[in-house]
Amino acid sequence: MVRNEALTLELCAVLLGKGEVNAVRFGMVEGIPGVALIVERFDRRDGGNLRCEDFMQVLNRRPGRDHQGKYNASYEDLGAALEFSSAPVLDRRRAFLRLAAYVLVGNVDCHMKNWSLMETATGLRLTPAYDALNGYVYGAQGYTTRFGLLADGERAQWDSHDRTRLLDLAARIGLPRKAAEAALDSLKRKKEVVFARLDRPLGLP
User: Fold this and answer.
1) Residue 134 burial by CB count (10 A; 0-12/13-18/19+): exposed, middle or buried?
2) Which of 18, 32, 44, 173 is most buried (most C-beta within 10 Å)?
3) Is residue 95 domain-resident?
4) Predicted structure pTM score
5) Is residue 161 domain-resident?
6) pLDDT digits (tens, 9 = 90+) for 14-68
């Protein structure tokens, strides 16, 4: 899973740009066998803590004792949380691009605690992507291959996502169709770079 998350975030960085994805690297941690994923804290700056709230906190919702409440949220809820951004139009586009990238890399576990707003010089803004991995590959082991957010009360299977469904999700989070189509076209231009990365050994079993 360590290598999976590292690769998934690397591919997201290719699709979205490095500044849009949390920085990670492989390393060793004393006392822990095997390779570890060293995750940079984006909410630390100049020795201090920046205000950072995941979307469950933003919407004042509790995850519950079983922590399953984070899945009891819709794409419309995602859009509602983005209303608290100081630049909601820009962050809706960033969020939509991220959703589309998550479809491409199989990151089905994109629940509401994996989205956050963070304090910046211009107010609260969407944080870089974090905690992303291809969960779809674990379907044969009994893990869900449905996405972590609801559309009309249901979580859609990964392989049911296409351009039409993505444009529907854009409308649900409040992004106009023309902006969504332009965003998808920008991802399409990254195709050759992504395929070139996939032609190299992945380091995954």
Assistant:
1) buried
2) 173
3) yes
4) 0.93
5) yes
6) 999 999 999 998 888 899 888 899 999 999 988 889 999 999 999 999 877 777 7
Structural domains counted in the chain: 1
**Each residue of 60-115: pLDDT tens digit?**
998 777 777 888 999 999 999 999 999 999 999 999 999 999 999 999 999 999 99
Domain hosting 70: range is: 49-189
